[in-house]
Automatic annotation (TrEMBL):
Region of interest (Disordered), residue spans: 1-20
InterPro entries membership: Sig_transdc_His_kin_SpoOB, SPOB_a
Organism of origin: Paenibacillus piri
UniProt xrefs under Pfam families: SPOB_a (PF14689)
Keyword list, A-Z: Kinase, Phosphoprotein, Transferase
Protein name (Swiss-Prot/TrEMBL): SpoOB alpha-helical domain-containing protein
Origin superkingdom: Bacteria
Keyword Kinase: yes
Length: 214
């Protein structure tokens, strides 16, 4: 009973902090809460992997260890690449999306590190376009209580351009998605080449190429 009372008091204190915070303080508080949510999300994921690892060892299921270790290795690589993207707003947005959005799983894939701040392109424009495209998938995904909704975003620096390839699996409102993607590209100041393939009501792909400035 004591622990329950402490939790309630802590929750009330947090609510009061929101209620009485000055405008600037409220912004700082929201940023801090977001940081805590991001930290808890990744801590939870890593704890799951560690518990699974110990479980396999305890049960002597050594044949499953190699696949699990490869999975962990892949996660370490992708999280490292994401944290070194070189654009703070983009990094925070992607990490926050992964931590806070429960209806759609977002995965980021890169074969090697990409540093947006070192590329000859408009980093803010690239971030705005990518964010608009991700939000278009999020707002037009349909949830019926079953099935997985997954958006995989692959970033690649090659042949004098930044390539963004997006693959979606899950039920989607195809026509509305197409319209929102059209608006996102039209609103962008970037000169891009892009193509969308709405394969069916459960799969969609978008490929965007941003040429580097010369």
């Amino acid at each position: 009973m004591k622990s329950e009372r402490i939790n309630c008091e802590q929750t009330d204190g947090s609510a009061k902090a929101h209620e009485h915070a000055l405008p600037g303080e409220a912004g700082d508080l929201n940023s801090n809460l977001r940081l805590i949510r991001i930290f808890n999300h990744y801590r939870h994921d890593w704890m799951n992997d560690i518990q699974l690892l110990f479980g396999y060892v305890k049960l002597k299921k050594y044949d499953k260890l190699e696949d699990l270790m490869e999975k962990i290795k892949g996660r370490v690589l992708q999280e490292s690449c994401l944290s070194k993207l070189g654009h703070a707003d983009l990094i925070v947005y992607l990490l926050s999306f992964q931590a806070e959005v429960k209806d759609m799983l977002l995965e980021i894939e890169m074969e090697r590190e990409i540093h947006i701040n070192e590329l000859p392109l408009d980093g803010d424009g690239m971030f705005g376009l990518l964010k608009a495209a991700i939000e278009a998938f999020k707002s037009n995904s349909l949830h019926h209580g079953d099935g997985e909704h997954r958006l995989t975003v692959e970033l690649a620096d090659k042949n004098g351009r930044l390539e963004i390839h997006m693959r979606y699996q899950g039920t989607i409102k195809r026509e509305l998605l197409s319209e929102e993607l059209e608006r996102a590209v039209s609103a962008s100041a970037l000169k891009v080449r892009w193509d969308k393939r709405l394969l069916d009501e459960h799969r969609a792909e978008v490929h965007i190429e941003i040429p580097y400035s010369t």
